[in-house]
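Case study.
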Amino acid sequence: MTNSHSRLTKFRFGTVVSAVGFALAAAWGASAPAQAADGRYAFVIRDFYIAQYNSMFLDECPSGISMANDEIWWRAMSKEDRAKKTDNGLITVLDRNPVAMRRGPKGEDVCLNPEVVTDPPLKIIEGKYSYGANLDGTTDGRATPKTCAHHKFTGLDGTPGVDNQLYRLVGCTYGWRKGGLIELNANEMRGTSGLGMALIEISNVQDPRNDDDVTVTFYRSVDQFAMDGQGQPLPFTSYRVEADEKGKPSYGDTLKGKIKNGVLTTERGDVSIPFYGNYNFMHPVIKDFGLQLTIAEDGASAKGMITGYYNVEEFTYYVGGMAGHASAADNCPSLWAMSKKLADGYPDPKTGECSMISSAFDIQAYAAYAVLPKDQKLAKTAKK
Amino acid sequence: MSLLRTLRVTVNASALAMLALTGCGPTEPKVASAPPDMRRLTDEQYHNIVTDLFGPDLEVAVRSDPLTRTDGLLAVGARTAQISPSGFEHYYAMGKAIAAQVASPAHRADLIPCTPKSETAADDACATQFFTHTGRLLYRRPLTDSELKAMVSAAHEMAEASKDFYRGISLGLGDMMVTPKFLFIVDETQPSKDGKDIELTPYAKASRLSFLLWNTTPSDELLDVAAKGEFNTSSGIEKHVERMMASPRLHTGVRAFFADFFALDKFETLEKDSIIYKAYTTVVGKDAEEQILRTVADHVLTRNLDYRDIFTTKRTFMTGGLARLYHVRVERPDGAWVPYEFSDEDGRAGILTQVGFNAMASHPGRSSPTLRGKAIREAMLCQHVPDPPGDVDFTSFEDPNSPNKTARQRLAAHAVQPACAGCHKITDPIGLALENFDGVGQARMSENGEKIDATGDLDGIAYSDALGLGKAMRNHPATPTCVVRRLWAYATGRPADNSTTAYINYLDQRFAKDGYRLPELLKQIATSDAFYAVAKPAAATAMLQTEGGRGSSTTSQEAVR
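After joint prediction, the assembly is written out as follows.
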């Protein structure tokens, strides 16, 4: 399959050549549909994972794996209480969800109220390598007016000064590691719910493989994924952009960017994107947001990484609001406490405490068409 | 006949034709009348009739024995269609199911025009009222006294036996729906005015007209018109043709014609490899078929444009599912239809570049220039392409390790076989122009990494791509002639043959004069004497007299009576 993106290049090439009377133009008068004419390309984000370098033997977690909520609850119980809960061990599969989180002094849910208990400190990443980007511009992680002092990583490709404190925070917790229930569940829910549909539109594109000046805008769609028989999104689906009653699109933050050999790289700026997962709907603003997106040769899909500073409160709020902590193998109070220590961006002017945490997210996206309110107006006009 | 006389006759014929075209002479050449005929209802006609009679709420899942495409049309194949034992079982079950729904408590008040004195006993008056009305619409003529009496009597017996009036109605209605009188459209005849020949009864004329224009049974109104004898005059026919053509229901009739003409029934069994073509689903396949019909109906009816431009029009309709295959933005990503117009720069224009045609004339996992060329020749140009010999060696074509990366290269290697070369010469240059569309009509520039060469020619008209093919088709002299021939055959169930040459030529010229407007052609046929002409099947009668056998339509017709 050849997609319209790559076809566009060839078609335009053909057009140019035909202008000088060369026969190639006849090759494909070709499907350079409306999208090509207006230079707009879009991708819908399917998967959104914290970018983590997880080695097979947990080399990056020499202190081990964090103790989970569930385990702490179980260990805290007396032998008699355990016997009571399990009918003297006859109940082998215990439904812990309603009770395991309620281990606050007054029976509070410790994920909704992480400050009410003091759990053992969260085990965190101590390894050297990480995915991500150098967000603060330093190689040693010293404090700057915009950041708090923190440890740096080296990129997997040897790039020094990589910031990814979010990975440091969650990387030694089973539930958060690659393949862990939390993010798998979040992505699955987003895939089937039609919520948190994030669109990336690249406009002002002259050449979808190489263009020095493009505009990248982020939207939320109100439409669900269209899936193939294997449960994967079908590329080149149209998605309507959410807009208010006056037709102004929701979200809509814009960055400049460039495309080189099919790799889109944006400049940095603050971007709000929709997010849904684990029964939480959020619209985080990622500060100093940067996107690098590698567009597949056939244009049907793209993989990339979002880097920037993520709001710590928002992240811990998300964690606290999740369901199913008993089986997620995570720890809310420890994570909450550690997140404040690891936050490395945007210090509070009064307290000096950083409010945001450097982060990197792997994304998988599929070619799409963003249907803006103006597109719907155009279509209505065309009908007349 | 001397040469001079032949010449004079030719000149006179031409002059007459010219006069006809200018509206001053005879309107149409005589056509040799054919014996009366009978055609089995298509599934769509069955469905339309039930919906017209009983409303859209009833569940109608009719799937009869498949019709055989004959001379390019299922409508012609319907003349020789039989009903197999299993086909009859299906009709029987369907008829009973529909009858049960009509008589059910949920529908009886709306669909049965009277209330019985008692629901637990027979009521002949009410049953008579129901069968008189419904039977006329199902049989497309008033029931004879004996038919009505038999129906009421059967309903009476059942009602008494079951102590349920509505079971009686259900039984009678179910029986009516499995009789040949309902399942076959019969050319019922009466002696002609001069008594020397036969002619269609007014009700049979109403049927011809209704199935041609609306693809359904004649309405009450049309049957009333027939009863009043208004179909006995040309002006009467013309008045009601115009009335029917002004109805939105004309779309149903025209769509049915094009579905048959373009052989869209192939979509019913069209399979695609879901691993290769992930975006092609059954739903999208239905949309693709519908897109062709919407495009054509919009073009030739709603906009009343030159028929030939269906091969070049940029206008179509789109759904979200189709838009994925076209790789275009659509304002409604769901299943809703929205008008769509391809841009001037787009490589698509006309129905040959649509997903539907290219998917239909392809293999499950790859495109086929040969199938596409054959489909165009046969369905759209009314030309015959011989079937391939049984012992074709496809090895060179299907070898996955072949150095020939494109279909053009593979076909070139394959067509060196003398037995294959002849046909491939007439199909492949057409189909290769569509190679920029894969097996489900998605655009592509290359195949197996090799750039696609979409050049070709259609009977001497060279082109460089699918757009050029569309223009060549638009300007091909066989294009309008083909639709004329097919519409005539569709209307009458008789393929155009030597006996209709003059008439078809006449229609061709009228069609051209009318700017290739299909409604004009349709009206021309529907108001023509030829459309209603029947004659005694002398040969068949002779055969009957000598052999006492069956085999003529008159025999069948009389059997139905």
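Observations recorded in class. The mean pLDDT of chain B is 89. Chain B touches chain A at residues 274, 278-279, 281, 320-321, 323-334, 338-339, 341-343, 345-348, 436, 438, 442-446, 451-455, 464-467 (CB under 8 Å). We will return to this complex in the next lecture.
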